[in-house]
Amino acid sequence: MTVIVVSGLGEASAETSSSVRPILRFADLPKAVRSDIEPKDRDCHIEESRLAYGDAFQVVDAGGKRLIIVPCGLAGAYNMPFALYGGYGEEISRAIFPLKFSETTGDTAFNIRYDRVEGRFTSFLKGRGMGDCGSYYVWRAAEPGSKDLLVLEEVRIKEECDAGGDGGPAAWPLIWKRQ
Q1: pTM attached to this predicted model
Q2: Is the CB of residue 4 less than 8 Å from the CB of residue 22?
C-alpha cells in the first residue's frame, strides 16, 4: 500500500499550500479517469475496493490545477504502478511522469508518495522487497502556465542489492539533479 505523506497540515506556507484529498470511490473521479480504470479491458483497470486503501489522491493548487494519482493495473509483490492525470475542472487527461532528464517519460510510476509541506512527489521502484536497491525519482508540480504537470527534480539509482542500511533511497547515489 502507498502512503500519502501529508505532513504538517497546518504548517504549510502559502507557496506550498495545496488541497490534498484522498479518492475513495470511482464516483469521486472525473469521467476521463474512470474511463481508464473502471473497464476490465483497460490497462489501468482496478477494482473500486482498491481505492479504500488510500492509494488514490488528488492535489489541487491555488490556481485550480488538479493532479490526480491513481493505482494503474496490477500491483506486484512490492511495487504498485500509478497513473497521473491532470488539468483544470473536468478537463482532465492522462499525463506523463518525466522519468530521467527531459527526454524520457513514462505513463506510470511506482509507489508514489506526496509530501504536502515539501510540495513534491516521489517514486520508489524497489529492486527487491527489502528496498535496498532500485530507483528513486522526485518531482514537483510545474509552475502555472506550463504545459507540463510535473517537473523532474532528481534521480537516484542504486543498482547493487547489498542489504545495506544506507539511509534509504533519498540517500542513494545522485544520478541527475535539476540545476
Answers
A1: 0.83
A2: yes
In the sheet that holds 112-115, the strands lie side by side as 112-115, 120-126, 134-141, 150-158, 174-177
| Residue 32: closest CA among 94, 97, 95 | 94
How far is it, in rounded angstroms, from Cα 86 to Cα 53? 22
Supply φ then ψ for residue 137, to 5 degrees: -120, 145
Query: 85-100: b or e for each residue (b if 16 or more CB lie within 10 Å)?
Result: bbbeeeebebbbbbbe
* Per-residue confidence in pLDDT tens, the chain, 179 aa: 333 333 223 333 334 456 899 999 999 999 999 999 999 999 899 999 999 888 899 999 888 889 999 999 988 889 999 999 999 888 999 998 988 765 567 899 999 999 988 889 999 999 999 999 999 999 998 887 777 889 999 999 999 999 876 788 999 999 999 98
Pairing mode of beta strands 174-177, 57-61: unpaired
